[in-house]
Amino acid sequence: RGQAAHALLEGLNAEQRAAVTLPAEHALILAGAGSGKTRVLTTRIAWLLQTGQVSPGGVLAVTFTNKAAREMQARLAAMLPLNARGMWMGTFHGLANRLLRTHWKAAGLPQSFQVLDVQDQLAAIKRLCKQFNVDEERWPARQLQWFINGCKEEGLRPPDVPVKDADSRRKVELYELYEQQCQREGVADFGELMLRSYELLRDHADLRGHYRQRFAHILIDEFQDTNRLQYAWIKMLAGLPQAGAHPGEPSPERTGGTIMAVGDDDQSIYAFRGARVGNMADFVREFGVRHQIKLEQNYRSHGHILHAANLLISHNQRRLGKNLRTALGAGEPVRVLQAPSDFAEAEWVVDEIRHLVREGGLPRQQIAVLYRSNAQSRAIESQLFNAGVPYRVYGGLRFFERAEIKHALAWLRLLLNPADDTSFLRVVNFPPRGIGARTLEQLQDAARAAHAPLHQAVPALTGRARANLAAFTGLIATLRQQAQGQTLDQVVELVVEGSGLADHYRAEKDGQERLENLQELASAAQAFAQQEGFGRDAVALPPAAPQMDAGMEAGLPAEMDAQAAPASEPAAGEPPLAAFLTHAALEAGDNQAQAGQDAVQLMTVHASKGLEFEAVFITGLEEGIFPHDNAQASPDGLEEERRLMYVAITRARQRLYLSHAQVRMLHGQTRYNVRSRFLDEMPDEALKWLTPKNPGRSLAEDETFGSAGRRFGLNAGPNAGLNAGLGERAWRPMPDAARAAALPSATANTREGAPIRAGMQVFHNKFGEGAVLEIQGTADDAKARIEFKRHGVKLLALAVAQLTPL
Ligand code: ATP
Ligand code: MG
């Protein structure tokens, strides 16, 4: 037994070993990324078990994600012959849920209570607001949701919430009504799981005593991102007398197990959700922590990568301060690419991925593409999909599976096929138009009786129900009329606006991201039309709704109809809108089947915490995107963005690629972004620019400019890549853009090389024909304001716009 236990320590460094073998006392391990914190935590559990200090039932381990819990379980199973399943190992929410399932009665919940996810919760709040005639303008449901969750995270029930004025009194009232509704319906939201289980222990001395005795060892990963309630929950389990509960006197109650918390202040990235880095200091103080261990050896990343991370994070002022070294050698430099567009960026990423897989022999699942916000994934997903590279999107739905996108697609489907009842039901009351469940029941009954699709059964109803439904079907008819003769992306925009979806999300305090995704859908449609060669073709909708006459005889349930058509191939000859809807269905559905397959991993930086990959791409390194616009206002916000970047960089083991695009179609808008300041906060010697770092300089100048010029020279030639090693291949479009940038006038990058002047007629790949209104700026900064016939006025950078004079 002793031998087996000592085998666990093999390969650990002295500090790690010290941490694993600490006596049963509270401890904090504060250490940087990749220093083995999670490994120490896992090994500690194995050590405690192996040396007989605890049985599996005596361990409570908290991880940040379910995935991390599964991984920890797998690692433990590999280390030990015991059944690791008996252990309480999971996320805070998962563990809270387990407590409540076990003690549902004491917790005052029905045995089969249901958990509400964030979307369900919002829907529940909306329903409540409607029932109590809450003025949506004044108390938007989103805001109430945020308020309620915030209260719960602070451990506050309605009577505990401080009331300042009439407004906050109303909010507290609604909080209380919401609680009653949840209780009545037997549901619990995420915050409720935590708070309810906390109260369960607080209010039941017997249970509290039981668990305090039971969990001799409590281990918490990613401690820097715990919020107030989570820390209070831990304290309840570990038996620290509540502050103020017994002032001055020691608690007569037995204290609980010992806590080992591991964390990294530099990786605190959930402040916006209530995480408190201060929990670390509180923990040390309140528990009188005597063991604080630092780990400084990084085992994950090669030198250049770590060097880049260290220097970047040193720009933050608020740090506890620590450094990391690696013994892995410098490794490959960090590759940096400036792409002319987001499309080109995605192309490069996918190209590079294929190369890494083919020549580098990397399994796809060892490659991650990271981005700051979900909307950015679309361009990359689309390229991966086209290239037939299996991929998997984590943390957040795939683009076409998001609720707002599904709503918009449902509206689009109804334009093509009013008999698509699934889509009908999805949006008949979304955005809300006063059509209730009762009306829909009547409608469904009538449709069933007539064997007709829902929209045909509308005349069978009476009164207000009929009027409301007729308004809906009328709107669809109007939209389809308006859609005639428009291009695909115009139709998407038309529907997003005309259906009221855009206004609906505009009115929501937190509808911004959904609104952006809807705009992104128009970008997706445009890109799709481009790719499929539809160009600016008008969508062809059947002149009148064919089902109006044919529906009855066809006798097919609408859903079958809707599904039978698209089949698996995006058939040639499908008109643009139908083809696009097929594409959306395929892209959403296909990858699900590939979930178990060796696939490239796509995720936001937030979702990548704690993970590691052989190769990592961080895309969209542009001001306003990463660091995000929202964060720029405050120094705290910027520091959190920088920590986020630090997390992203330190996911990489061998290879790190950073990219930014000069032009980006995001949220339906063309944006010209400056490269992220983070790129300039990393050490030059660790980076390798695949495109010139400062393309503003002329070629000659660049050449005399030392390393930047050499870098450029090395990669600019058309064949540079053939001789270069993995990842050193030149990026095709670059020489063009670079050449253009070096030219002194606004003649840059026209196809024919002719100068672009105001008054000229030009053709653009995406936007088609237009008239140049004016030229702004000079040389490589020159931009043209162009009025496109079909797309209105755009401001395009001449260096990248690829205009052809007509
Ligand atoms: P993060 O802050 O990103 O969560 P971490 O500090 O939790 O990182 P781990 O994930 O535990 O770090 O470890 C990083 C990598 O280093 C893992 O692959 C782990 O197996 C490896 N590692 C840790 N310690 C050692 C060691 N002593 N010898 C060899 N490899 C190690
Ligand atoms: Mg970790």
UniProtKB/TrEMBL annotation:
Q: Determine if Transcription is one of this entry's keywords.
A: no
UniProt-listed InterPro entries: DExx_box_DNA_helicase_dom_sf, DNA_helicase_UvrD-like_C, DNA_helicase_UvrD/REP, P-loop_NTPase, UvrD-like_ATP-bd
Query: Which reaction does this enzyme catalyse, per its entry?
Result: ATP + H2O = ADP + phosphate + H(+); Couples ATP hydrolysis with the unwinding of duplex DNA by translocating in the 3'-5' direction
User: Which is an annotated Pfam family here?
Assistant: UvrD-helicase
**Which domain of life does the protein's organism represent?**
Bacteria
> What's the Enzyme Commission number for this chain?
5.6.2.4
Q: Write down the top EC class of this protein.
A: isomerase
What residue stretch is flagged as signal peptide? none
Q: Where in the numbering of this chain does the UvrD-like helicase C-terminal domain appear?
A: 303-610
Q: Name one GO cellular component term.
A: cytosol
Q: Which residues form the UvrD-like helicase ATP-binding domain?
A: 10-302
Family matches, as Gene3D superfamilies: 1.10.10.160, P-loop containing nucleotide triphosphate hydrolases, PCRA, domain 4
GO terms, molecular function: 3'-5' DNA helicase activity; ATP binding; DNA binding; exonuclease activity
List UniProt keywords, sorted A-Z: ATP-binding, DNA-binding, Exonuclease, Helicase, Hydrolase, Isomerase, Nuclease, Nucleotide-binding
Q: Alphabetically, which GO biological process terms does the record hold? A: recombinational repair
> For binding ATP, which residues are annotated in this chain's numbering?
31-38
The record's family statement is: Belongs to the helicase family. UvrD subfamily.
Q: What is this protein called?
A: DNA 3'-5' helicase
Q: What species does this protein belong to?
A: Ottowia cancrivicina
| Taxonomic lineage | Bacteria, Pseudomonadati, Pseudomonadota, Betaproteobacteria, Burkholderiales
